[in-house]
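Incident review: delayed structure delivery

Summary: a single-chain prediction request sat in the queue longer than the usual turnaround. Root cause was a stuck worker, restarted by the on-call engineer. No data loss occurred. The affected request and its eventual output are reproduced below so the record is complete for anyone auditing the incident later.

Affected input:
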Amino acid sequence: MPTLEMTLNGKPVSVEIEPGDLLADVLRDELGLIGTKIACGEGECGACTVLVDGVRVTSCIYPAMKVHGRQVLTIEGLSEGRELHPIQAAFAAHAAAQCGYCTPGFIMTAKALLDENPNPTREEIKQAISGNLCRCTGYYQIVDAIEDAAQRMRGEG
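Output delivered after worker restart:
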């Protein structure tokens, strides 16, 4: 079995995997990080979004060995101790999570957006989250939360 070595949420990780394993399965089944959700299994809904070297990927279709030697950030790696990341805090403040299943994917998508563009317009936010599906919120609260998170991260909120 090949050994996958990566930096996961800031810490070096080494795990034996099967050839052909997908990143979401390794994160959830081998490493116990169940914040990454698997919904569609086809890379269409965004629930499984994680960041690889700062770029969002749909981990349910992403070959695990492609992250060998790279940086992977999951929802579990955002907060520091008991302190929520500003994006997480904004999602809570705006009730942007109804059932919550899609929330980790939206938050990771927002993280990628705000790292690249700290002051996005509402249209840029909508475009950025267009690959994530939510059946509960209607998206208004999510867009509001990302706007708020951007302000918080710029020190304005």
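Verification: The mean pLDDT is 96.
Action items: add queue-age alerting; document worker restart procedure.
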